[in-house]
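LAB NOTEBOOK - FOLDING QUEUE
OPERATOR: T.R.
BATCH SIZE: 2
PURPOSE: Compare the predicted structure-token outputs for two unrelated chains run back to back under identical settings.
PRIORITY: normal
REVIEWER: second-year student, initials M.K.

ITEM 1
FIELD SEQUENCE / FIELD STRUCTURE:
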Amino acid sequence: MNPVNLSEKFSLFSEYWRPKVAARLNGQEVKLIKARGVFPWHKHAREDEMFLVWRGVFQVEFRDRLVTLHPGELLVVPAGVEHRTLAEEEAEVLCFEPAGVRNTGDIVDPDFTAPQGAGI
């Protein structure tokens, strides 16, 4: 039961689109993500996914619209909804989702699919 300093944790890694687990609770993982560029289209069949922006500007694109998030803003992507994420400049984002969820959902992409459960 120690506090997690998000700024410190984000400073420990530099790779983009490789989630790092910062905390676990009630079967959920709080993942830290550095984002830059465009992530592939995907969906999570059974899991909702929540993004909370810590630093920078982060976007979530749906087939019919683009949502732009700034620090302190969050968005929940419901299960089964196809989406992709993007950031023109580096952004730091927290993602809340059930443990064991593959970051690329229903696809496997050698450039983007990350190992599950990697902590920091």
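ITEM 2
FIELD SEQUENCE / FIELD STRUCTURE:
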Amino acid sequence: MKIKMVDLKLQYDKIKEELDASMQEVIDSTSFINGPMVSKFADNLSEYIGCENIVTCANGTDALQIALMALDLKAGDEVIVPDFTYVASAEVIALLGLKPVFVDCRSDSFNIDIDSLRSAITYKTKAIVVVHLYGQCADMESILTIAKESGLFLIEDTAQAIGADFIFSNGSKAKAGTMGDIGTTSFFPSKNLGCYGDGGALFVNDKNLANKVKMIANHGQSVKYKHDIIGCNSRLDSLQAAVLNVKLKYLNDYIEARQSVADFYDKSLRDIYSIITPVNLRFSTHVYHQYTIKVLNGLRDDLKLFLSEKGIPSMVYYPIPLHRQLAFKDCKFENVNNSEDLSKEVLSLPIHTEMNEEQLNFICSAIHEFFERY
């Protein structure tokens, strides 16, 4: 069987009847935009996430943009964002006339570095965008303290970590995306909770802020044809909600399946001296949107090529830190040494809900074969 980074076909086959029936319900109703299925999904997601106010939208990038628009930031205000992440987390900042300030990540968890975050704060800083990268929460207890002390807004980008739990020092738990002022997520098909097109959502604890977010996503109106603020047009269509409403029921099962794959990789690869397997932090569960290893001694690209020749896909998330992207050439950045190093070391291996032991043995055997040369 061909190995894929994500196998959505096999996943679909297992729940085909439920998915088809859910989509057919929308087609029969002909309520394709903001229909009952969208409301139903939002309610179910609210219960799962533990956040009272869910606002759905067209995609994860829109969710980030809407979140920033809702905070009434002014042109030139600085927003701190990790240097080692996908471009969407930063491009929406620049798009709104704000100033991205790139900070370093931790070399072990790949998430935002607390010391780098602290050192980047100036009188111009107004907000922090935290990215829970690869499926594990950043150190939110420390970040929440910093945000409160400095009077900063806090946005959580949880596109890769939906369903992950953060464990506070007192033992209490919260889902990724529910701890800051606004949480955002993406339902891109390859995500742990993915639809069959584009989709996104925002998680907002404050009711007034949630109402504003909802208005912004709907042309700035709370009543039809009455536009109180500048907004945009960003909607989750009902067919995508129909897919998500079914798949949400299986999200915990999907997470457990990914964790089992990760456990297999951990045990199989931990003795290879040139590989560092993902760390499991004491304060966060890991939902493994990606299983990302560090390949040391300059061997990452050679390993990737070797795996490709064996028919094994792999991906580099991300090969160029944001501060070195031409689009952000004029932006400020703090010490980003870890970000630079990781861009040369990280390699994400196939991981999805339908992987079997035969595939995993083949992948791990190939990796061992490669390193036997050195």
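REVIEWER COMMENT (ITEM 2): The chain has two domains: 8-102+110-248, 251-371.
FOLLOW-UP: none requested
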